[in-house]
Amino acid sequence: MNWEIVIGLETHVQLSTDSKIFSTSSTRFGAAPNTQACEMDMALPGSLPVMNRGAVERAILFGLAVGAHIAPRS
Amino acid sequence: MANTPLHTQFSSIQALREALQAGQLSATELAHSALEAIEARKDLNAFLHVDADLTLEQARNADAAIKAGKPAALTGVPIAHKDVLVIKGWRSTAASRMLANYVSPFDATVVSRLADAGAVSLGKLNCDEFAMGSGNETSAFGPVRNPWDPNAVPGGSSGGSAAAVAAGLVMAATGTDTGGSIRQPAALCGISGIKPTYGTVSRLGLIAYASSLDQAGPIARHARDLLELLEPMAGFDPLDSTSLEFCDGAPNGPGRIRSRFDAAIARQQKNGSRPLEGLRIGVPREFVGEGLSPDVAQAVENALKTFESLGAVRVEISLPRTELSIPAYYVIAPAEASSNLSRYDGVRFGHRAESYKELDDMISRTRFEGFGPEVRRRVLIGTYVLCHGYYDAYYLQAQRVRRMIANDFQQAFAQHCDVIMGPVAPTVAKAIGDNREDPIADWLADIYTLGVNLAGLPAMSVPCGFGTERPLPVGLQIIGNYFAEGELLAVADCFQQATDWHQRTPGNQ
């Protein structure tokens, strides 16, 4: 049999944003316990996620860096 | 009726505002009289939470603002909120045992916007549990009674809101509409309600049921009062990712709806005795056929004749996938509900079972105890249709049907009509307890309202008559194209200038 070898890499990277990806809570390392959580992180009734703009920008930058195609709308 | 609240002497929010600002009565007097009336009408079970201290504090602030010469649009106007909207300092239960003692640390955006506009909140209103139901019978805190007949349901899920307005306990109320939950109770209680275009009103602080369908809106006696509430409620909110910044090119902000309402009213006035000259009303043949009770059909027909006498023309249209809106909705809404309600696990907030073995046992006991049968039913259906292997057959297929339903509406508006009219519900209010053994019967009765939510369109209900077999109110549904809230309210206002159905009150038919 003639197999073609395709290897995918899944890489997890901690982003350098100031706040979490779906909430405004701080991501500062080493802060006191329970000081960096908000309604959204606790999933309190009525809370809604808002996408972190900085995370999207970093994802686009990474895409551009590896020569990927960036969809202008999604 | 004893304990008639002071605000019922005024035919509109505008008239009440003028009296307040002229110093003829105070917000505190209004609040006291409404609190007394709410206490006297506990039999309706419309309110879940009343806090006189919090209400009177707001009323005193309203009086101070008037005294200082700085009243806002709704300063001193007594309203109340459906209990799926969270308010800081008040219990926010979604009419569920799961949240029986839950107090939110923040305000829903619509609540804070109405508070900023000066409205005084009289409390939290009963509804179906997590807004899942169409008769207010799934509330963990008991059914609400229809002010027109204590043995009839008020409709749902915003049943407490509709009952409170119909009984005159408040001037207006907030509701939410995921599949008809503003329009249907407004119809069954003989008052008016509007579900705005999806994305025009913030969902932040609305306890989520089906996020792609949920939308808050006002319930009041007539179109002009709806406008008074909807105008401050609507607006872009950066904290809700589905909130729209622009509507038809206009900023989603203050004055958007009112300016289109005013322009439509000006056009009506230019037309003289036939104010609606040229308005094309599409009547879907699927809305007036089999399954519609004859007395509702007759009331709707009479309303359409009134519109024709006002200059409008009637066009028969077809919304061929109307029947499919039921299975599509009852796949999509439960799917979203199963996801939205997964947070109620007894770990961080809300109800937790008292005795349990390990973690899984705690979660399942908590959810079994905390959720009523209708919520459990929808969570189970939703979990099932999202299962790996069934997803394509149910959820994806339902989303395709949803798109086709939205396209059918767009085709109708593009080719045939300016507004669509028909019944809101197939019958007048049923008796409390009917259909208890047959939950599907209630789902089928949502047929005329679900398509609007699936398409994200604005739609309203206005009272248009009474049943003959049982003399209970009938509502006319008016559906518009995206962002046409102002035009819809102007069409409804024209009808209400020509009729007096909206002035009928229980005990004064």
Would you give an account of this structure?
The complex is a heterodimer of chains A (74) and B (509). With 74 residues, chain A is mainly alpha-helical. Chain A has one helix spanning 53-65. The model of chain A has no long low-confidence stretch (mean pLDDT 93). Chain B has helices at 13-21, 27-40, 52-67, 109-116, 159-166, 183-188, 223-233, 256-270, 294-309, 325-340, 359-370, 373-385, 392-415, 439-444, 450-455, 485-498; strands at 47-49, 78-82, 120-125, 172-176, 192-195, 216-220, 246-247, 250-251, 280-284, 313-317, 419-423, 459-466, 473-479. With 509 residues, chain B is of the alpha/beta class. In chain B, the strands form two sheets. An eleven-stranded mixed sheet of chain B has the order 1-3-2-4-6-5-12-13-11-9-10, with helices on both faces. A two-stranded antiparallel ribbon of chain B has the order 7-8. Chain B is built from 16 helices and 13 strands. Helices cover 38% and strands 12% of the residues of chain B. Chains A and B meet through loops of A and loops of B.
Helix fraction of chain A? 10-25%
Helical percentage of chain B: 25-40%
Strand element count of chain B: 13
How confident is the prediction overall: mean pLDDT of chain B? 96
Radius of gyration of chain B: 21 Å
**Helices and strands of chain B: which structural class?**
alpha/beta
Keywords:
heterodimer; A: 74 residues; mainly alpha; 1 helix; B: 509 residues; alpha/beta; Amidase signature (AS) enzymes; eleven-stranded mixed beta sheet; two-stranded antiparallel sheet; 13 strands; 38% helix
Short recap of the structure:
The complex is a heterodimer of chains A (74) and B (509). Chain A is mainly alpha-helical and 74 residues long.
